[in-house]
């Protein structure tokens, strides 16, 4: 039996692990991670499907394929009876700017979604903005989606172990192949200095009367999930500060209220900080590692999704599973 280890239990690790079980039903799949569910970065993400143009795979074609595969995957969940349990919903809203027309365009998203149109004059006047698009896209809420994937993984016989991995060498005896889905942890685990945190701070607010999403200048966003609305945010490059900052909170709240004054009536349920695992290019690659004692280990990397890991993890995980299958071919034996 093929033994596969998956390092990481965020949205990328859980997605990869369940896709591996589907593609290789005879394999034993084990997840190893030091943080789970509400302790992961994935848990606090709003989960909107709206790639930034800086989201990059190795080629523009691969980037588009990851996004198309991901959108189709979530759309299929949306159209099934599992949508609410999995935390997947359809969401419409506005990208608005008073500064630049490019802010409201999105060449990666436009070809995927059913609705992407310029705002009408009345819509722009209502929000006192110069440029705008109205978009219908998807949102996946990890507070539902990660437990959903965890249940699928366990039901199929997957094992979960809480453990911090300090070197891939530790895993060489126990696994034939390892998928590395360690997010920001890859900086240390792989010595990958191109991995950089981008700090994000948000409010989670109960305001059920707000149905549409809003994105505006200065990283201000209001993104309604199932139960709570994510109100953000910040994008602080190379900041490791995982504490709440009262100055950021004040600025975020002031900007959000200016867009949607009725938010003031909402109940602030909690605040949250997460470090987006940014890498200039998301890494989905295979590698055969050789350690000092001569031992070898086949590794498939799947990390560095930055601010887009929830939306893009199905596509990158399908790619990672294809690389695992390639490494399991007899010709690639160590
Ligand atoms: C404020 C904010 C808003 C966001 N909004 C969105 C959004 O709207 N849409 C979107 O798509 N994305 C969004 N993101 C980005 C998204 O959260 C990330 O891209 C995604 O969560 C990355 O998932 P991951 O599984 O790689 O990382 P994580 O969720 O951080 O999981 C990493 C896992 O690896 C494990 N690990 C790491 N190192 C080790 C080690 N050495 N040993 C053992 N285990 C290890 C950890 O314990 C954890 O289980 C947002 C992020 C932030 C901060």
TrEMBL record:
Start and end of every FAD dependent oxidoreductase domain?
Answer: 4-321
Its keywords, alphabetically, are: FAD, Flavoprotein, Oxidoreductase
Q: What is the official name of this protein in its record?
A: FAD dependent oxidoreductase domain-containing protein
UniProt key word Transport: no
User: What cofactor does this one take?
Assistant: FAD
Concerning its family, UniProt says: Belongs to the DAMOX/DASOX family.
Q: Name one GO biological process term.
A: D-amino acid catabolic process
Task: List, in alphabetical order, the Gene Ontology terms for molecular function in this entry.
Answer: D-amino-acid oxidase activity; FAD binding
Binding positions for D-dopa per the UniProt entry: 221, 276, 307
Q: Where does FAD bind?
A: 34-35
Lineage, top ranks: Eukaryota, Metazoa, Ecdysozoa, Arthropoda, Crustacea
Q: Which domain of life is it from?
A: Eukaryota
Concerning SUPFAM superfamilies, the annotation shows: FAD-linked reductases, C-terminal domain (SSF54373), Nucleotide-binding domain (SSF51971)
Q: Write out the coiled-coil annotation as residue ranges.
A: none
GO cellular component terms listed in the entry, alphabetical order: cytoplasm
Q: Does the keyword Oxidoreductase apply?
A: yes
């Amino acid at each position: 039996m093929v033994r596969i280890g998956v390092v990481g239990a965020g949205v990328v690790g859980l997605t990869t692990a369940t896709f591996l079980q589907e593609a290789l039903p005879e394999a034993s799949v084990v997840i190893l991670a030091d943080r789970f569910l509400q302790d992961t970065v994935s848990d606090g993400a709003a989960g909107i499907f709206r790639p930034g143009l800086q989201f990059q795979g190795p080629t523009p074609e691969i980037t588009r394929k990851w996004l198309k595969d991901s959108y189709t995957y979530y759309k299929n969940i949306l159209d099934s009876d599992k949508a609410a349990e999995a935390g997947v919903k359809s969401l419409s809203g506005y990208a608005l700017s008073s500064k630049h027309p490019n802010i409201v365009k999105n060449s990666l998203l436009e070809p995927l979604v059913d609705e992407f149109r310029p705002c009408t004059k009345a819509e722009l006047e209502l929000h006192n903005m110069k440029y705008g698009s109205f978009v219908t896209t998807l949102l996946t809420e990890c507070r539902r989606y990660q437990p959903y994937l965890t249940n699928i993984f366990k039901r199929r016989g997957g094992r979960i172990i809480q453990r911090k991995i300090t070197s891939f060498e530790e895993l060489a005896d126990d696994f034939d192949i390892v998928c590395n889905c360690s997010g920001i942890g890859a900086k240390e685990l792989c010595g990958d200095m191109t991995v950089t945190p981008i700090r994000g701070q948000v409010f989670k607010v109960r305001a059920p009367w707000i149905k549409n999403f809003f994105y505006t200048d200065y990283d201000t966003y209001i993104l309604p999930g199932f139960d709570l609305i994510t109100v953000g945010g910040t994008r602080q490059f190379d900041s490791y500060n995982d504490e709440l900052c009262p100055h950021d909170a004040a600025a975020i709240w002031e900007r959000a209220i200016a867009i949607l004054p009725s938010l003031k009536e909402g109940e602030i349920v909690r605040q949250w900080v997460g470090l987006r695992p940014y890498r200039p290019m998301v890494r989905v690659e295979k590698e055969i590692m050789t350690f000092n004692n001569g031992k070898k280990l086949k590794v498939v990397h799947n990390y560095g999704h930055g601010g887009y890991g929830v939306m893009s993890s199905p596509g990158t995980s399908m790619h990672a599973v294809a690389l695992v299958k390639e490494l399991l071919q007899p010709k690639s034996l160590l």
